[in-house]
Design goal:
Layout lengths: L11 H9 L8 H25 L4 H35 L4 E16 L5 E15 L11 H6 L2 H5 L7 H27 L1
Antiparallel strand pairs: 1-2
Helix pairs in contact: 2-3, 3-6
Length: 191
């Protein structure tokens, strides 16, 4: 018996391959396949329960949430540490940071720190960003127009005006922070 996706009626193995081809393999393909497998089991279970009983089972919904909420929590922590790495090294290098965001989309809440950085939490918790003073948007696209309009004092705080070694340090700081987080977690588990 081949397991089919309930929407497209394609074999689930094809969907895994298509879906994983779009994902960055952060935790390894087996880890990502495991997450997708769990979600697809809950979706199939929900569909079977709704066909049998005519309504969604509350147990199925709670089971789905018992996987989804911890996943989002862990992802949020990893994203926070990653972005904090970029943020701290940028500040250390003298780069002015406009925004530190966990999540995308509309802001749930936020505040300004004493350096003028907007710290925000947004509705879609699937990533984050650190926006520098000379960025055009949250994806850190450099804005040549903004750089040209800046005064000399403001240019000193711009990411694009920093030497290449400082820019490389800022860019590398996020993945290094995640690597250090993994060492701390493994040390805590296995000590």
């Amino acid at each position: 018996e081949v397991s089919l996706d309930l929407v497209s009626q394609r074999p689930l193995d094809d969907i895994y391959i298509d879906f994983c081809g779009l994902l960055p393999v952060v935790g390894g393909k087996k880890y990502i396949l495991g997450i997708i497998d769990r979600f697809s089991r809950y979706i199939r279970l929900t569909a079977v329960n709704s066909q049998v009983s005519g309504a969604h089972s509350l147990d199925t919904i709670f089971s789905f949430l018992s996987v989804l909420l911890p996943f989002l929590f862990v992802l949020t922590v990893v994203v926070f540490i990653h972005e904090l790495g970029h943020f701290l090294v940028a500040r250390w290098c003298g780069v002015k940071v406009q925004a530190f965001s966990i999540g995308f989309g509309r802001e749930i809440f936020g505040f300004y720190d004493r350096h003028g950085t907007r710290w925000r939490l947004a509705w879609i918790p699937l990533g984050g960003y650190v926006k520098f003073i000379d960025d055009e948007n949250g994806a850190s696209v450099p804005s040549r127009d903004a750089l040209q309009r800046m005064s000399d004092d403001e240019k000193q705080g711009a990411f694009q005006s920093k030497p290449i070694r400082q820019r490389a340090a800022v860019v590398a700081a996020g993945p290094i922070a995640n690597f250090l987080l993994a060492i701390v977690i493994f040390a805590g588990i296995y000590s």
